[in-house]
Amino acid sequence: MKEIEIEEVEITLFLEALRLRHGYDFRHYSRASLRRRLLGLQRLFGVEHLLDLLPGLMREEGMLARILAALSVPVTEMFRDPEVFLALRQQVVPILRSFPRINIWQIGSATGEEAYSLAIVMAEEGCLSQCQIYATDINDAALATAEAGIFPVRKMAAYSENYRLAGGKGRLSDYCHAHLDVVEMNEPLRRAMVFAHHNLEADGVFCEAHLVMCRNVLIYFDRYLQGRCLALIRESLVRGGYLCLGLQETMDAYEKKEDFYPLERMLRIYRLRSEGVVR
Ligand SMILES: C[S@@+](CC[C@H](N)C(=O)[O-])C[C@H]1O[C@@H](n2cnc3c(N)ncnc32)[C@H](O)[C@@H]1O
Fold this sequence. Notes:
10 strands, 2 domains, 19% strand
């Protein structure tokens, strides 16, 4: 079978068409990972050349959502890196709990596992009723799964182990019910959440937040776009608000990183200094 390849000029032209036609700018995504996603897109549509997709990109309804879904990497799991959730539970939630209302902006929600994990922690720490979790992404298909709150039952053993390591106080099955090969998350968790389309590359601040979770998203971006996202996050945080990045991510691309201090350096949990944005 013929090996599919993509020339750099094709990538440039494709991204330019996507940007000019639909306003989605992927030029600041890390090129190696983007190239792999574009190869996947080409295979998905069974076309010989990436630019064969241009007529569809220009005119077909529904094509944009398929392209965005193919370019995004909605890989996630419940209580991913459980030690981070344990630290949030022990060091951040006790402070957040003192606020009458807690807004959490969970960026790059993918299929929602991270948002549900947060909701479970908030429920166990007795503050879910004062909490609103805004979970955003550019992948509408992933957002639809997240909103439905339905996950494959085969993943529950691994998720339950993560939950235990994250300091879970009961059993993960207390928060969902099984139907054949899927589990559905319980209604009280879902009531605390809003899932919405938001593009970090182009859109403004989504909400005023006491905690922003932006894990495993910046790794796909170049330094310029990482800097833009971190500035957006900084703007959204209330004074003394918290930021949690992925374990492979840093604040290096942000020019005012001294606005934050590391609460848990290795776990990438930061706090905005209280002389930060006054709300
Ligand atoms: C690897 S997942 C991270 C999921 C979750 N945060 C976690 O750590 O398990 C990365 C997500 O970032 C989303 N993403 C990529 N570019 C984005 C953008 N410009 N704006 C918002 N979300 C974006 C992707 O659609 C994908 O769902």
